[in-house]
Amino acid sequence: MDGTKETIADEELLRRFGAGDARAFEALYDRYRRQIFTFIVRSTRDRAAAEELTQEVFLRVVQRADDFKGQSKFSTWLYSITRNLCIDHSRKMAFRRHRSLDAPLRTDETGGASLGDRVASDDLAPDRNVESNTMRSRMEAALAAVPEEQREVFLMRQVEHLSFAEIALVVGVPENTVKSRMRYALERLQKALAEFEDNVAEAG
Fold it and tell me: Does the reported pTM lie above 0.70?
């Protein structure tokens, strides 16, 4: 199985696990562990909490494997579990907020510069690091101000690359509502970035 597990559909792996194949679960875990951890750590900004919540996500998969009826993709079901755990965590940690810098600057962009790309990397020359850190702080502040329902759509779309239809299933709202939330989130972030760049230009 080890040589072919990447070609086996998620749903088939879950079925095999339900039939007693422990290696099938290991394949699912290996396939999604990093993605789920990344999503949670961006949501909570707490690596220790993300480690615990990631383990809890897959524990829920084990406990609820028989509940999966194939009415959606396994990945959609998995992110629904993850989202619910993140919501529970945020309720306990009231001041936690989602963070990400990976959104394209326009909703119709399929490539090109992203918000994250606009922030200089850590290996830039020292004279640019101050500006980089300032921009990053500005964007993080802007993301903190984005309403929760918009922020989670932003994360699932631009970080985890779920389709709008999949996000709609995860969050339980119509697809058009998901698209609206995404648009509003990006508008807020674009405005924050524009204001920052205007201030930098004036200072210069």
Answer: no
